[in-house]
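Assemble and predict.
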Amino acid sequence: MLQVLSKEINSFLNSLIAYIVISVFLTGIGLLMWVFPETSVLDYGYANMETVFALGPYVFMFLIPAITMRLFAEEKRAGTLELLLTKPLTDWQIILGKYLSGVVLVIFALLPTLIYYYSIYQLGSPVGNIDTAGVMGSYVGLVLLGCVFTAIGVFASMISTNQIVSFIIAVFLSFILYSGLESVAAIDVWGRFSLFFEQMGLAFHYRAMSKGLLDTRNIVHFFSWIAVMLMFTKLLLVSRRW
Amino acid sequence: MSIKVNQLTKIFGEQKALDAISFEAKEGEILGFLGPNGAGKSTTMKIATTYLPPTTGQVEVCGLDVEEHPYQVRASIGYLPEHNPLYLEMYVREYLSFIGEVHGLGGKKLKSRIEEVIKLCSLQKEHNKKIEALSKGYRQRVGLAQALIHDPKVLILDEPTTGLDPNQIIEIRNLIKSISKDKTVIFSTHIMQEVQAMCDRVVVINNGRVVANDRIENLKPTDQSKVIIKVEFSEAVKVTDLEAIEGVVAVEQKTEAAFVLTCVADRDIRPAIFKFATEKGVSLVGLTQEEVTMENIFQDLTKSEK
């Protein structure tokens, strides 16, 4: 698994994808957080990082599929997947290696935003007037959300040999799982099932975590989606043998 | 037996790609796997490398069933898939090191193996380049180097010389020959001369069936009762006159003075043709008896099944 992981990370670094994704993410979030008047924390008046955590998921929704779309699609198109699958690697070693490479990239994109926390901590009046527990809870939530989006992206990449198709499927699935289900729940036809849809979605659990309380129910929910997506990926990988 | 294929059948949906094929390859042997496109060569190789499962039947590599022990089998074979897939954005060394690591090599052992295969595949000049910058012949060598990095007992090469120029083909052939001493090599091709030049034994398949499995020198066309003679005279002669020669079965006119004669094989009729020419007062400017080539045998074996 580590060989595949390091190969993918090298490939991110060599193909500039890593630098582009990280710099676009940081530029976008930075502009929203500090410059654009509608969302800037400086004009907002409250010492919190709400901008990052409210808009971060939507930025991830586009950037993560861009990272993951090539993971399997390209290997399938180039035929190198056959090469990998005839080496002494298990299917899970290949899937997890690729998946974790995406997760590593997401975490590295997020790490520099810790500086924002420090800045706001210092800018607060009085200094340190920030809900640290809430921020840390949100960070955990955002990382987990990134992990789910990466799993969705890996699955979407396995569906097609065309990277653009993979990208679009991944964006769509991420959107549905994040906020789509919640919007569905808002339609006034479900009666008492409405709560079920809302809780299936990721946004519900993400918000719960941003309050600073790391409830195992929320964490289990995120990991369940990761597991489901990766199992579908494995299923597709095995389906060549049917 | 390094590779043993027993009653292997593969069905894709409605289509029977392989129909109960069986053959074996011993250690130190180069086995040519021959057949027209779509005969089932690649399918057999994909099953032997655990990429696809057989529908029925077994394949054993070094005594291990490919379905029961896929990881041991994968570790003991070097496989060059058709079209030689490569990570084009990688450097040659980087690529070889990745494949080596996948095979569990590391540290000094990996380094020394990389040096060895680079030398073996004559990649010294190109080893610091990106794979995408290499010519097709060199890419093929990288593919072979990749298959050899863990010093496998069995080499499975799917059309290793397709698309190469004649010089490159000869280089790759020599390379395969030189590495085959203590290994079992199976390689597929649809080029007859290739088999003639390299293999100890040949398995010919057509429409998913084995139509020949023998040493090269034992391969003969099924129909040996006829020979083909090409003949050309200085001036026009009549077809009917030619047909009158004893032993000529059929005459095909190519031009006014050039003919292809189908003759019985039990005696040489070339003296009779020479006599015929002197009797008619024309000169004989060409007379060749067609050799039975590997192409003929190939055509013969793969046509008769249809």
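Chain B touches chain A at residues 46, 49-53, 71-72, 74-75, 77, 79, 81, 83, 85-90, 94, 98-99, 101-104, 146 (CB under 8 Å).
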